[in-house]
């Protein structure tokens, strides 16, 4: 392939041995997927939306399992920082669950998607500002890499790009609802952290 290589979620060639870089890249992937859902229609929009739902579910679950517990312990004022982030995540997850079963061509889909986008982006900015920057200052490269490994285990469950021939409606249905994906993500993350 002659095209320039752009790192994306699930890409092992990307530099992602630092949990903060990895999560910030996922924030970028999430932004790109919102763009894709907005710019497309019909089957293409449906598929892009499925990828967005999966990445959001996997991303937030991994944060809740890996970086929030660390921030709570290690950052000054960490308890409050994490409580605020969890409240934002809870709100975003509720909107996500409501949108998940929706027909992406429904006239009420786009206004709800835009609301979700606004909430998710404000949340991501707050994480980057109040949590991620401080995480990097509070630990060493070994721990950043250990946390990154757990995030990567989660990320493997959420491809951000279409895989021709795989992304059929049937394949998407087989993935099950968001709640089940979050459970599987939790298990994968805990395994990667050696917790079970
Ligand atoms: Fe989050
Ligand atoms: Fe995040």
Automatic annotation (TrEMBL):
It comes from the Bacteria. Residues 19-132 form the Hemerythrin-like domain. InterPro entries: Hemerythrin-like. Pfam families: Hemerythrin. This is Hemerythrin HHE cation binding domain-containing protein.
């Amino acid at each position: 392939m002659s095209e320039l290589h752009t790192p994306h979620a699930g890409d092992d060639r990307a530099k992602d041995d630092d949990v903060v870089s990895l999560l910030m890249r996922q924030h970028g992937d999430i932004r790109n997927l919102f763009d894709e859902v907005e710019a497309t229609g019909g089957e293409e929009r449906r598929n892009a939306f499925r990828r967005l739902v999966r990445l959001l579910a996997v991303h937030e679950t991994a944060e809740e399992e890996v970086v929030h517990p660390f921030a709570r312990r290690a950052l000054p004022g960490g308890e409050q920082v994490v409580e605020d982030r969890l409240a934002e995540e809870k709100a975003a997850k509720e909107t996500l669950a409501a949108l998940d079963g929706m027909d992406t061509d429904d006239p009420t889909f786009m206004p709800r998607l835009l609301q979700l986008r606004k909430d998710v982006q404000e949340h991501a900015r707050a994480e980057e500002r109040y949590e991620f920057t401080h995480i990097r200052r509070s630990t060493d490269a070994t721990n950043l890499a250990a946390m990154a490994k757990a995030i990567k285990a989660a990320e493997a469950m959420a491809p951000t790009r279409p895989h021709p021939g795989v992304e059929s409606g049937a394949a998407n249905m087989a993935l099950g609802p968001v709640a089940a994906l979050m459970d599987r993500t939790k298990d994968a993350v805990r395994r990667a952290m050696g917790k079970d």
